[in-house]
Amino acid sequence: MSVFKVKLNNISQGIMDLNPATGGQMSPSLQRSMWVTGPNRSYRELFDGTTFTDSNYWKRFAYPQVPLADAIVEVVTDDGSVYSDIPEENNYPRVYTMTVAGGSAYAANVIDVVGDNGNAAVSASIENQSGQAVKVKMNGLANAIFDLAANETKSFNLGDAVISRLEFNNTSSGATTATVQVILTIRSVSQS
Questions:
Q1: Of 13, 44, 77, at which residue does a domain stop?
Q2: Higher confidence at residue 137 or residue 190?
Q3: Burial (0-12, 13-18, 19+ Cβ within 10 Å), 53
């Protein structure tokens, strides 16, 4: 998810109603807002000067995608994902390398997919790059635990599972550390 700042009081568009609380200086207006059509036939009210986090759909209202005089948002941080009006095309990769200490349990080895990326993964490749087996728990479910043998790869194709969280257990190996590489495909879903 990227972060955007609403800039309705664009100097190139002319100065409209200035914020009286700042003595008429150039700053966001307390009264200015506008409704903008968002993705999935939704509408979002944009208030001048506020920030919001959403998909890169909103980059189409920012400079340089539109001329500076017509831009109504500024990109504060860009997650680098691509936005398409076709939902199935809104995927981007994310790679994690998890070092699972010997004797450590699930709670110590967590990949919070939704917390890190704003959305769940729609496919995954989980590769145990070490010489001993580890256990993997998906989505925090006690009935979604599987063994990942030494140097084994487990794949979940598009449509197999929606992955919001992965946890790893290495309690059976003693003091031997395991390394697991996880390659995820994240589906970028707009928040509006």
A1: 77
A2: 137
A3: middle
